[in-house]
Design goal:
single chain; 2 helices; mainly alpha; 0% strand; rod-shaped; 131 residues
């Protein structure tokens, strides 16, 4: 698309130059008048070309800023999604650790109860043997 715009502006420029030159050369006027017209037309054409170049540069600058803003928005959107996923994973890992700690405590309690039961059984066995 930008290539087509470049051809358009180039064609417009060349057409303006050729049309102006032919118009001045074919018009009935004195040499001095023709030179003055050529000078004015040339200055006007270069002024127009300069204005178009400035406008084209400003358009490019705006397009670049729009693209930069769009990319920044996308990066921030993905950053927020990633941060959200990281937080979810951290929450899941914390919950799993709590569950494991609870199970470990339950196993320790069961082990302590089993040790007490074994001690009680050993005492009863020792009492039974001594009787």
């Amino acid at each position: 698309m930008s290539c087509n715009k470049g051809y358009f502006w180039g064609g417009l420029f060349v057409g303006t130059i050729i049309g102006g030159a032919l118009g001045l050369l074919l018009a009935p006027a004195s040499g001095e008048e023709t030179r003055r017209r050529i000078k004015e037309t040339t200055e006007e054409t270069f002024g127009d070309v300069y204005d178009q170049a400035v406008e084209y540069g400003e358009n490019l600058k705006e397009q670049f800023q729009d693209m930069t803003d769009s990319v920044t928005d996308k990066v921030n959107q993905y950053k927020n999604q990633i941060e959200s996923k990281i937080q979810e994973i951290q929450d899941e890992v914390s919950q799993d650790l709590e569950d494991l700690n609870d199970e470990l405590e339950a196993m320790e309690d069961a082990g302590a109860e089993a040790a007490e039961t074994v001690e009680d059984a050993a005492e009863k066995a020792a009492d039974a043997v001594t009787e």
